[in-house]
UniProtKB/TrEMBL annotation:
SUPFAM superfamilies: P-loop containing nucleoside triphosphate hydrolases. GO terms for molecular function: ATP binding; ATP hydrolysis activity. It comes from Krasilnikovia cinnamomea. PANTHER family: METAL TRANSPORT SYSTEM ATP-BINDING PROTEIN TM_0124-RELATED. Residues 9-234 form the ABC transporter domain. Pfam families: ABC_tran. Keywords: ATP-binding, Nucleotide-binding, Transport. Signal peptide: none annotated. Gene3D superfamilies: P-loop containing nucleotide triphosphate hydrolases. This is Zinc/manganese transport system ATP-binding protein/zinc transport system ATP-binding protein.
Length: 259
């Protein structure tokens, strides 16, 4: 794989396991300053494990990780992993994103102002006193984005940011992430949503225990690549200039007639 400019993180022949069989092997991939990348693949194929290696929270058992010194990264977890009964308001949750050492245990006036500004920027400023479980799925995702942005990241990593949300919310999150990327933040996310999410991003990485393919959607969303990634034949057609995946031949024939 040809090296790219403005490298933030590079993985070279990386292998990863959890005290057992390898989850990932022969992983060579890079993340650059201008990237907006989706990692796609089947459940159990290693997407979240790859994110953990990129974040530096999981060390590989083999290979080399190249990381730009003092790189600032932030992470947005899957909403399904959050304890929504924990007694936190929206503002308090965002404040937990402050990672630097504190002289006093309570937030400063400047920090509270920064939280308010971020919540306003993400369109949920009026909800700052709500309990976190009182938010919709899209609002919860925006809250965790605000929490991540409190760390002024150069690289934002998200695990399944559109899982469990409706099509309208997915569209809003996609545009919000595009705006953050346009503002200079590199973004890497995992997703199972090939058509609603992945096809709209400029770079895809297909993973199933190894890197199957990496490139733009037209290079990656192809029947042979998808079959190697998911282990099942999938058809691909174009709709409004974007590749679209159709899992069943009958459904594919219906859409082709409609198009």
């Amino acid at each position: 794989m040809k090296p790219r400019r403005d490298l933030l993180i590079g993985l070279h022949d990386v292998a990863v396991g959890y005290d057992g069989p390898l989850v990932l092997s022969d992983i060579t991939v890079d993340v650059c300053r201008t990237d907006f990348t989706a990692i796609v693949g089947p459940s159990g194929g290693g997407k979240t494990t790859l994110l953990r290696v990129l974040l530096g929270t999981l060390r590989p058992v083999a290979g080399r990780v190249e990381r730009r010194p003092a790189l600032r990264t932030s992470y947005v977890p899957q909403l399904e992993t959050v304890n929504w009964d924990f007694p936190l308001t929206v503002s308090e949750c965002v404040l937990t994103g402050i990672t630097r050492h504190r002289v006093v245990p309570w937030p400063s006036r400047a920090e509270r102002a920064a939280v308010g500004a971020l919540l306003d920027r993400l369109g949920i400023g009026s909800l700052h006193r709500r309990h976190i479980r009182e938010l919709s799925g899209g609002q919860q995702q925006r809250m965790f984005l605000a929490r991540a942005l409190m760390q002024d990241p150069e690289l934002l990593v998200l695990d399944e940011p559109t899982s469990g949300v409706d099509a309208t919310t997915r569209h809003e999150i996609l545009h919000l992430l595009a705006d953050l990327h346009a503002g200079g933040i590199a973004i890497v996310l995992s997703t199972h949503d090939l058509n609603g999410m992945a096809a709209h991003l400029p770079r895809l990485v297909c993973v199933n225990r190894r890197i199957i393919a990496a490139g733009d959607p037209d290079e990656v969303i192809m029947p042979l690549v998808l079959e190697q990634t998911y282990g099942a034949r999938m058809e691909v057609l174009r709709h409004l200039g974007l590749p679209q995946v159709v899992e069943s031949p009958a459904r594919w024939a219906t859409l082709r007639k409609a198009g």
